[in-house]
């Protein structure tokens, strides 16, 4: 089946459906071009687009558990020959507490086994009133999220559902999917310290949005 989130690109900016949705959500969230943004991707057109509009944007990729948070590394993949990229692990970010206005990530949480730790880290690094903007594959018909597998101490995986891998800009083999998120994700976001949580859906073929992709925006508590 054709994945309209990923294959439909704008003829002008070259961003995919999902990337354009993220760019629009970030633009709708902030008006000051000097805001401090951490975008948890760097080897992408989305990063370059956001960086041009908001110069204080910091990009990063997850480069492996053996890497040091906040340090830049040279790496290569089947797509990119060499890249000098900052490493960040969403479950233990290197950014100071309350140091960011916006933190954004796109289709990351489903690949993080301890996604609750990731949500709490996003809350920690945001200033009061700061915004978390992100996408995940979201199944709004599900009351509870589905855990598809878990990691074992020896590095292997125990599968509770058929293995699912998504494309990845760093690892050519793809990246394992631990979660299919349902409506209970909204409660988990609030529990991590966010006072307001919204999910927006945009289906506007005349604007190039040809799938029912959703984007989350959560505002950190101010006290």
From TrEMBL:
Keywords: Methyltransferase, Transferase
Stored Pfam families: Methyltransf_11
A GO MF term: methyltransferase activity
InterPro entries reported in the protein's UniProt record: Methyltransf_11, SAM-dependent_MTases_sf
GO biological process, one term: methylation
Cited CDD domains: AdoMet_MTases
Record-linked Gene3D superfamilies: Vaccinia Virus protein VP39 (3.40.50.150)
Annotated Methyltransferase type domain residues: 85-134
Domain of life where this protein originates: Bacteria
Protein name, entry field: Methyltransferase domain-containing protein
